[in-house]
Amino acid sequence: MSPADSGGEAITAQGLESLQTELHELETTARRQMAARIKFAREMGDLKENAEYHMAKDAQAHLETKIERLTRRLADAVVVEVDRGGDTFAFGRTAEVLDVDGARLHAWTIVGATEANLAQGRLSGESPVGRALVGRNEGDTVEVPTPRGPRTYRIERLLP
User: Fold this and answer.
1) Among 145, 79, 153, 71, which residue's Cα sits nearest to residue 112?
2) Which of 76, 108, 159, 160 is deepest in the core (most CB within 10 A)?
3) How far apart are CA 107 and CA 156, in angstroms?
4) Would you list the domain boundaries of the chain?
5) In terms of C-beta density within 10 A (0-12 exposed, 13-18 middle, 19 or more buried), how is residue 88 classed?
6) pLDDT tens digits, one per residue of 74-93
7) What is the mean pLDDT of the chain?
């Protein structure tokens, strides 16, 4: 069963661990710090005219919203096993990909949308480039429509 079949969100085991760590940090340390901030602001006097208190309460609301979103993402997460032995560029695998038009070589790992971060070399498998590259072999070239016009990419090498 694929993540799409189950209605879940594809994620690597490492991505799942990162989400769990972030959620734990927010539910423990961040909440304690927020409680201390609100307590300090309350001690500053009249709550009606206490800007520090109102800012702290707004920050608390943002924190709780973030915790709620992370909890929902974890509930929907479907860990996809990585097959590092195959001959194709697949979820969780890393490859050196040449942007033929820009003459730039990238080392990209195909990950779930919530793990994507191009600055760290993590390309979403749901992105147009990711979808075009998944299932391709070393040496394959694909053309991908982008807002700036079509781009050509070639898989130079699959990394272990």
Assistant:
1) 79
2) 108
3) 10
4) 3-79, 94-159
5) middle
6) 999 999 887 777 789 999 99
7) 90
**CA dist., res. 92 & res. 17, Å (int):** 14
Q: Is 15 exposed, middle or buried (0-12, 13-18, 19+ CB in 10 A)?
A: buried
CATH code for the part of the protein at 94-159: 3.10.50.30
pLDDT at 7: 66
In this structure, the dihedral spanned by the alpha carbons of residues 84, 88, 92 and 96, taken in order and rounded to 10 degrees, is 100
DSSP class of residue 159 equals E
Judged by DSSP in three states, 102 sits in coil
Beta bridge partners of 152: 143
b/e per residue 16-31 (b: at least 16 CB within 10 A): beebeebbeebeeebe
Q: How many CB atoms lie within 10 A of CB 113?
A: 13
- Beta bridge mates, 108: 95
Q: Classify residue 50 as exposed, middle or buried by CB count within 10 Å of its CB (0-12, 13-18, 19+).
A: middle
CATH architecture of 3-79: Orthogonal Bundle (1.10)
